[in-house]
Amino acid sequence: MVPIHEKILADPRFQQLVARRNRFAITLSIIVLAVYVSFVAIAVFNPPLFSMRLFGTSAWCVGLVGGFCIQAFAFVMTGIYTARANGQFDRLAREAIRGAAI
Fold first, then answer.
1. pTM for the predicted model, two decimal places
2. How would DSSP label each residue in 25-93?
3. Secondary structure (3-state) at 15
4. What are phi and psi of 34, to 5 degrees?
5. Could you list the pLDDT tens digit for every one of the 102 residues in the chain?
């Protein structure tokens, strides 16, 4: 008798799940890394841009707003991953487990 975990690992739906999840996670990671590296690169190579005030004598500067935008971006990317993980990835996992139990 084959243990259930080996049936799940051999199930093509589970392998599809792992491949899709890894591809999606790598894609999101590259996008997030590119945004962070761009932010740091601008800070390093063009500091006057970050210290530029948004409105006249306002205390708000481009770097501060850029930092808030990056935090919002990370929050949105986390939401996108969570929505897909709780939807498509969980459905594929349930199908693989159900298929292995039969």
1. 0.80
2. HHHHHHHHHHHHHHHHHHHHH-HHHHH-BSSTT-S-BHHHHHHHHHHHHHHHHHHHHHHHIIIIIHHHH
3. helix
4. -60, -40
5. 778 888 888 888 889 999 999 999 999 999 999 999 999 999 999 999 999 998 888 889 999 999 999 999 999 999 999 999 999 999 988 888 888 776
